[in-house]
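Write out the 3D structure for:
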Amino acid sequence: MAVLFLAGTLMLYFAAFAYARTAADSSYDRLLAGSAESIAETLAVSAKGIEVDIPYAALDMLSAAPEDRVFYRVFGSDGKTITGYPDLPGMRALGARDSPSRGQRDLLPSARQFFDADYRGETVRFVQLGRRVAESGNVRSIWVQVGQTRKARQAMTSELVIRAVVPIALVTCLALALVWFGIGRALTPLETIGRDLIEREPSDLHPVTAPVPAEVAPMVEAMNGFMARLNANIHRLRAFVGEAAHQMRTPLAALRAQAQLAMDDDASQMRRSLVSIERNATRLTRLLNQMLSDATVGHRSSERRFKTFDLIDVVREAVHEALPIESRDSTTLQFRLDHAPFDGDPLMLAEAVKNLVENAIHHGGGKVEITLCARDPGYLLTVSDRGPGIPMEDRERVFERFARGASQSPGAGLGLAIVRQAVEGHRGQVRLDDRPGGGLTVSILLPVGDA
């Protein structure tokens, strides 16, 4: 900004200099022309020829510049000097004829022509004008030339430039000082915020509370919102790790206890111990699978790498992978449409279907029915079982991680949390309803397009 202000000041200086020089020339040119006019008015014809009586007032009007020197000359069209300085430089070459040249006719009868020329080592400003006089029946052209050195003009130009530029320079310096002060004050809150963030511990994500100007407030609000989301994610991650460790500790402890019993017991007790080991190993395997599924769905829902696929193929393959062999005869899979094109993440939806089917088998018991049909504005997938169901007051809570319903079957409480995350990643909805005749129906509505 200082460079821009300096460039602007230089431009104003040159503009002021040009204006001041023009104004000085205009003022002193009027005096110079008036002096020449006064001399021209004294031209007279006598028996001796052309006579000139140089009036005192003609040169006195130029005395406003006492340091300047004044020169004059009166001459005819033949170039002969009548009075004055005979060696004054001319504006143009003058013809020797009585009648004026074309250039000289332009100056008559009283036109003025100003020009600068070097004379006696100085730059002199000249004015030249002509008069016609009658002499012995002939008309002659007489020229009056008056010159003045430029010291007074230069002094006036400098004075005008100083008077114009000094206030501009002062205003520029004041503006720079105000800008420096204003920018410093504006950046002070940012420096305060920066110091606050640098001095914090890595785990300290509380909001920034330093007072800031209105222009900086949106950035601080966005920063606080980001830290709040990050803090919430960290808390969820810590809770997940802690709960997962707790869930894994129980089956692992049981595995060790059963293994020790198997080593100490006889052959009749060993089989029962091995059955317990196998049951706890299955429970631990399911827990690890669900934790992996939860991490996969969470990662892919943030990336949203969608593609077009047939929802029927995804549901059929997911059900086939989730169903154990002994449960296939008691499970019904119905597709009430031939094709179900859908734009989304097939892996996320497959994980949701697997968890629904596993929950229905492990917690519901009895016959499981799975249907997929068209439902405006998309598709409706339902998974129904004959289990104890979920009380109305617990239906929102069971979608949280490690939260379980009323079923006494072993489980980690991750299944419905995975389902909701996968479905909401596709702008869908999950609903829990009582199944007629007993049991629970989980309904998933997946919208198509911009719905």
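The radius of gyration is 53 Å.
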